[in-house]
Amino acid sequence: MRSLVETSRGRSLLYYLLYISEGGPIGFIWWTLPTLLAARNVPVDRIAELSAILVLPWSLKILWSPFMDVFQFRNWNLRNWIMLCQFLMGLTLLPLANLDFSADFSLVRTLLIFHAVFAASQDVCIDSWAIKRTPKNELGRINGYMQLGVMSGRWLFASGYLLLKNYFSQSVLIYALVFVVWSNALVVFFTQDETLMVHKISSFRNRCRDFTKKISSVLGKRATWAGIAFAGIAGTGFHGATAVLGPYLLDRGFTEAETGGFFGFNLLATFIGSFVGGYLADQYGRRKMTFLFLGLVAISVIAIAIVDQYFWSRILVYGLFQWLHVAIGLLTVSSYGLLMEITDHEVSATQFSTFMGAVNICESWTGTAFASLFRKYHSYALNFSIFATLSLLAFLLYPSLKLIQSKRRSVISESA
């Protein structure tokens, strides 16, 4: 029986499943848990504080991602790291089955902080594995399946959890979440990959020296810094439009039910964009498609601003925001594929984590700047236009994001 990593369909299935194990806990922690805490009268400031703390490991994972690159041996590689992280992820979730989220808030917070660290570490290793094992002509599609997995997991344990909580106990639903995480550890266990094997064993000192030398080489490349800059600015257009999307819709007369329905449809729209974007990026070039989709996102946001400011239409705004989420899916998978392409596979955990850290920083600074501008001008349309225009500065980086050629292991066949 062939390993999943040996065929294109197998790789798509593998990374789709692994990203479900990422998206499930994220959906529960970031979307479901705040709702459950609010329903149990936990103060909003404590909920906001918890959410802010739990996001930090994804922003700070660059601090420990070098360990994932260095600590790989003959019998311990990325697969082992992933299985260990997934085991610990499930272990930190299990006690939640029998805890009162309100009365045991401090213990719940501690468990989830540890869980977030293990989940962010798993994320580092899965991305590194994908970079090492995926032929460059599949990077767009693989990122498409990854995004589909994340969104499937988020929906299942966010919307799905809230829909099912009236029919099943908290214990059953938490056990289901743990089952999803641990079953994916079994998938990794049965997916052998010889390309991850470390055959040349050297001392820890020599490993650190080689790693430092390779990182220095990577940091000396223009494409690396262009990738960091791109990740830090390209998303400002859609982050500025979606950061306060719920309040915006309510301010414009949409009901809570209509807003809830909107979020259900935009998940589908992002699904479609992610699936199509991956294939288009592989077919026509990730760099070319990334910047085409970046322009599409900016134009969509500016169109929303114009409609909002000059000729308001509920149907048109609703439709434009759904189209924007298709464009977000297109841009996300193509740009992640591009960033994977310019990542050196020998230090992939560290380099790609740096890119993703810049993506998280982009979301953070955009939200902060949006709030500051909105307090001053009280205009959604102005804010939407400003951040969409800022995102277009990323076009200045186009010449520097040259694709790294022939850096992948020769064992990986382009036609596999």
Number of strands: 0
**Helix segment tally:** 17
Order of helix and strand elements from N to C terminus: HHHHHHHHHHHHHHHHH
Shape field: globular
User: Mean pLDDT score, rounded?
Assistant: 85
Helix fraction, binned, reads: over 70%
Sheet of most strands: none
What is the straight-line distance between the termini? 15 Å
Low-confidence runs? 404-416
Percent strand equals under 5%
Indicate the radius of gyration in whole angstroms.
21 Å
Overall SS class: mainly alpha
Structure, described:
The protein is mainly alpha-helical and 416 residues long. Helix content is 75%, strand content 0%. It has 17 helices and no strands. The protein has helices at 8-39, 44-60, 65-70, 78-93, 105-133, 139-157, 159-164, 170-189, 204-219, 222-233, 236-242, 245-251, 256-284, 286-310, 314-341, 348-377, 380-391. Helix 4 (78-93) runs antiparallel to helix 8.
